[in-house]
Every structure is written in structure tokens, then in C-alpha cells.
Specification:
The protein is α/β, with parallel strands linked by helices. 35% of the residues lie in helices and 18% in strands.
Length: 402
């Protein structure tokens, strides 16, 4: 897993596997790779015996909504009863309920909650996380979310990559004038840049949210200000968001469940990575999990993610998503491992530092209670993590019960 650039198409089936391998770490960096027999030449102050376990790069989580207030467990029963989402919105639920909760939650409480979720992600073998704002829909709360993510990055061992998703939904007061709302979000980009609160700018391009032309104008303004681009697109209706992501050189197009044939072809012939979110389809009870198989077969690079958020994919367990990707997206184990390591790293601008085990790279490594890489997506719904090493330090070990 040390090739330059993401794995595309058939390359995602070519997984580098070493048997009886040993890794030498000095401080926070991998400085040596070889066999266990060759490792005898090393003078180690500490040795971890993997005891035949699977050892991989730390998992990379390329799409989360980490910072938010409240929760929405009461909506599950309504969804099970078949209550339409618009009706849930009328009853005070849906994304706007999370917006109200996030606006009302103090900075300190949001930080404590984000650190809690990061702790849980670490136990599942995740070592790098993308975190979006988007539950403020106003200047004050969006900045609050981004500042929380920045402080969480400083306080927590996991690396956080921040994305500004102020254009996540249209607040009620702007329902008849979404362009005015987008202009308001553009107005805070300079402040975000000055405080180094986000690397990427994202927008939700979908029916009832923002159109392709609106999204193009907004993202071009963000690009002019030096931000990398991401886009939530083609989740429900194939509006052409995949094509827009490629057109603008976005680092990733996310969701893409109903991407068009033309969009898939353009994706395959670009550097844009498709970030696929099968947990969302699973949680919402959808029959169609998306077109990841067609994307890979066309030659595209894809990553997969939990889409951790309080409304449509309430899990920090990327291992579970790996199983769903196997069962519902029909991805091979080799493709899945690329999608949660090297490709996921490139999807958040961290391809040069995360997602692989290589000499000179930071030592982000996971030891699994599994005999081989095939086992993790096969044995679903549990946590297989034994030990997580971040920047050369053990940050999690499976607790002993007996």
C-alpha cells in the first residue's frame, strides 16, 4: 500500500500483503520494514508481539459530521411507522432539530461530546478523521463547530481534517432565497481561512437543497479563496453533482448513490475520489446502496465512510461499514481495504501522511484480533481491534476480561 496516489479501478484489487512481517518505529515514524527474522538486528527498547495477528495501517474516516448537539433517537419510531421526512420536519425533527440543538449547546459541551465520539472511533481502529460543520446554518454556530473541531484536533491523539459545510441545508428564513443564504456563508470564508478553521468547503447539491448552478457559483468562490472542494451530491436524484465535482477538481464527491453513467465515466477519468456511504442506505432502509461497483469497474477511485451523523447514519463503527460494503456494494475485501486506508486518505488531502505503512510515514498502525485481512468484513457487527498505535504511541488496547 505504498504506491503514489489513490488506487483506481483494478488497482483496488491489488493489495500488498506481507507474511511474518516486522515494523521498526522510532518516536512517531516508521523507520524500518522487514521480516521477523531480520528484525533481530534491531535494538528495540520496546517490542510488541503481534502473535500472528493481522496488522494494517490505521483506518481513515473520510466523511463525518463529528460536531453536533443533541440526538434524534425519537425519530426512529416515526421512520419505522413510515412517517415521511417532511412530516418529521413539521413535527420539529430532522436536520433542523439538530441545528437548534447545536446552536443551543455550549462550546465546552460540544467539545466534550466530540472528544467522546473520537475516543470511540479510536477503539475501532480509526486514526485520521474528517469532520464537517453544517449544523449551525448561521455565522456564529458554524464558526463554533469549526473551532470545536480545531481544539479537538489539538487535544485528541487522532488527526482531524476540517471541512466547512455551512451550505448543508436551507434555513427556514432563507427558504425563498437560497442564494442570499449562500452569500452569507461566503462572507465568513475569509474568517475561516484566517483562523485556519477548515481546509475544505462542501455543499449539499440535491433536490430541495442547492441546485447545480448554485453549487457551482458557491464552490468557485471558495476555490478562489484557496479552499479545497468537496461536494455532497447525487444522493437522492441524479442532478449532475458527480459531473460538477469533476469539473471543479474537487478532491471528492460524496454519496453519489445515483450518479449517472456520464458522471461515473467522468469520475473514472479524473483525480476526484468517490466517497461512498453505504451506512446511510442501511440506516434509512433503502434498497439501492449505490453504484460503487460500476465506479470501480469503470476505473474510478472510491473510498468508503460511516457518514457518522445524528440523523441518517448513527455509528462510529467503520468496521461495520466495511461489512456492509461487502454485502451490499459487492466490493471485494481487497477493494474495501483500499477504500478505508489509502484512498480515504487521499479523499481528505492526507494521502502523503496517512493510509499506508511505509518507511518515513507516521506510525499509524492497528493490530487486529483476526488471522488475515479477509476476516474483518466477514465477521460483522463486532469490534476486532486489539491495539491501536497513533504516531508511534499505543492509544488503545482491547481490555482483558479474563
Amino acid at each position: 500500500m505504498d504506491k503514489k496516489g489513490p488506487a483506481k479501478g483494478v488497482e483496488m484489487s491489488d493489495l500488498t500483503v506481507w507474511n511474518n512481517a516486522a515494523i521498526g518505529i522510532k518516536e512517531d515514524t516508521v523507520v524500518w520494514l522487514g521480516s521477523t527474522e531480520e528484525a533481530s538486528i534491531l535494538e528495540a527498547t520496546q517490542t510488541i508481539d503481534a502473535k500472528g495477528r493481522l496488522v494494517t495501517p490505521g483506518l481513515v474516516e473520510p466523511h463525518t459530521h463529528l460536531v453536533f448537539g443533541g440526538s434524534r433517537e425519537r425519530e426512529m419510531a416515526l421512520k419505522q411507522q413510515g412517517v415521511p421526512y417532511l412530516e418529521i420536519l413539521k413535527q420539529g425533527g430532522g436536520i433542523l432539530s439538530t441545528v437548534r440543538a447545536t446552536r443551543a449547546t455550549s462550546y465546552g459541551d460540544l467539545l466534550e461530546k466530540a472528544l467522546f465520539h473520537l475516543d470511540r472511533m479510536a477503539t475501532y481502529g480509526i486514526t485520521t478523521v474528517e469532520a464537517k460543520s453544517g449544523y449551525g446554518l448561521d455565522r456564529e454556530t458554524e464558526l463554533k463547530q469549526l473551532r470545536v473541531a480545531k481544539e479537538a484536533n489539538e487535544k485528541h491523539p487522532l488527526d482531524i481534517v476540517s471541512t466547512f459545510l455551512g451550505a448543508h441545508a436551507i434555513p427556514p428564513e432563507y427558504k425563498e432565497n437560497p442564494e442570499a443564504f449562500l452569500n452569507e456563508m461566503v462572507e465568513i470564508l475569509d474568517e475561516i481561512k484566517q483562523e485556519e478553521l477548515a481546509e475544505f468547503v462542501d455543499i449539499f447539491t440535491e433536490t430541495g437543497v442547492f441546485s447545480v448552478p448554485e453549487s457551482r457559483r458557491y464552490l468557485m468562490k471558495a476555490k478562489e479563496k484557496g479552499f479545497g472542494l468537496k461536494i455532497h451530491a447525487d444522493e437522492i436524484d441524479p442532478l449532475g453533482g458527480t459531473e460538477l465535482a469533476v469539473e471543479l477538481g474537487a478532491v471528492s464527491g460524496d454519496h453519489l448513490a445515483v450518479a449517472s453513467d456520464e458522471g461515473i465515466e467522468k469520475l473514472a477519468n479524473s483525480d476526484t475520489i468517490g466517497v461512498i456511504l453505504p451506512g446511510t442506505s442501511f440506516y434509512l432502509g433503502k434498497e439501492d446502496y449505490g453504484r460503487a461497483r460500476e465506479m470501480i469497474d469503470a476505473g474510478a477511485a472510491i473510498a468508503i465512510s460511516t457518514d457518522f451523523n445524528p440523523g441518517s447514519s448513527v455509528t462510529e463503527n467503520l468496521q461495520l461499514i466495511m461489512s456492509i460494503a461487502a454485502l451490499k456494494l459487492k466490493l471485494s475485501p481487497e477493494e474495501i481495504w483500499h477504500a478505508v486506508t489509502v484512498n480515504a486518505a487521499y479523499a481528505i488531502g492526507r494521502g502523503d501522511v496517512a493510509g499506508t505503512i511505509a518507511v518515513g510515514r507516521k506510525a499509524d498502525i492497528v493490530l487486529w484480533d483476526a488471522p488475515n485481512y479477509l476476516y474483518i468484513p466477514y465477521h460483522y457487527g463486532v469490534n476486532h481491534t486489539n491495539t491501536v498505535i497513533k504516531n508511534g504511541k499505543v492509544i488503545y488496547e482491547r481490555p482483558a476480561i479474563r
